Amino acid sequence: MSNSFVQARGDFPILRRRINDRPLVYLDSAATSLMPTPVIDQIGRFCAQQPGNVHRSTHLLGEQASGAFEAARATAQRFLNAPHSDQIVFVRGATHGLNLLARALGEGFLGEDDEVVISSLEHHANLIPWQQACRRRGAKLRVAPLDERGDLDLDALDALLGPRTRVVAVTHVSNVFGTINPIRAIVDAAHAVGAVTVVDGAQAPAHLPVDVQQLGCDFYVCSSHKLLGPTGVGLMYGRRAWLERLPPVETGGEMVSEVSWQEASFSALPHRFEAGTPPVAQAIGLAAAIDYLEALGMQAIERHQNELLEYTVERLDACDRVEVIGRPRRRASVVSFNVEGMHPLDVGALLDSQGVAVRAGYHCAQPLMNDLGLQGTVRASVGLYNNRSDIDRLVEAVDLACEFA
Ligand code: PMP
């Protein structure tokens, strides 16, 4: 493990906690990641020194808050390599961004018998908003299947695309198998039939470099709390031509330019999608998290985590009674597994008793679990602060579970 990652562990105060009398092993970053001290301090500094509202105050504190908020937007633009900061909308998180898009695209562009295509890997957050949009508009939801490894079946996806396809919405990285989807290929296929593309990036940007221009997608959403930032804020990137055509579905203060009793005209991008007071302190915390990730280097983080994921699969494969679920060709973030004869929730509880935090259950992907005939899985997910001894502690606790099973 490189020196910078050894040192980085010291930046995460929660790793000094003991859980059930053991030093904490945190392997649940796919649910929410840990916050390093520079992020915690930056939020504290902002709250202590600049508690003005943004884009409306006439006083200095408000101006400073607005400046810091817009600087955070510029940091997010650089991180995702968006062409301009006005293409970055602050949302409350990936779920909020996806709901916003499903409502707006549904209202503006979906008609009867039109089709929305998603994949079988989708989290409920990128499924239910489209179900609802299709129901409201009389459109159809099509679901692309997987192959036996847990990779998207690209031929089957292609076969679903046609002249009625209006939207293709897929996850960048699966929160169940860790599958990295070939977004560029999916986007090209969708664009060839004139569909708009939405990428659920909740699991990606803490694990690999994300460049929305290279991916070529029309929309990309992610959550701060999965990339070392605080809860309550996320990003929605949009291609300019699409953002300009999108009806704002949330209205109120902040997002208007002229208002009369009967009419309102809307602000320029990106403010027209940010009705009400935005999550200012959270956005500033997110920018500090991005600075932290960039200082370590996304490529180095990707390498470090890939090495840990490979080690996790190798160690779990060596346990007789353990089955690793999903063997994607390219993996990030998570490894799912089950212990023979034991419910995943029981395994999760046993691991917790050993100080090892994982997630167990459906992972908000119930239709996928039903298709696989599973009651859920146990999911270990890594962050840049994990090391091989965390994985050894996981396997030690899994071995104990195998004895109970
Ligand atoms: N999509 C995926 C793939 C996820 O893993 C998650 C979080 N588990 C979400 C969407 C939703 O993210 P949030 O809860 O931050 O809105």
Please tell me about this protein's structure.
The two termini are 34 Å apart. This protein has two domains: 2-30 and 297-404, Aspartate Aminotransferase, domain 1; 41-294, Type I PLP-dependent aspartate aminotransferase-like (Major domain) (Aspartate Aminotransferase, domain 2, 3-Layer(aba) Sandwich), CATH 3.40.640. The model has no long low-confidence stretch (mean pLDDT 96). The protein contains 14 helices and 17 strands. Helices cover 40% and strands 17% of the residues. The radius of gyration is 22 Å and the shape is globular. The protein is of the alpha/beta class and 405 residues long. A seven-stranded mixed beta sheet has the order 4-10-9-8-7-5-6, with helices on both faces. Strands 13-14-17-16 form a four-stranded antiparallel beta sheet, with helices on one face. The site of 4'-deoxy-4'-aminopyridoxal-5'-phosphate has 15 residues, from α4. Its cofactor is pyridoxal 5'-phosphate.
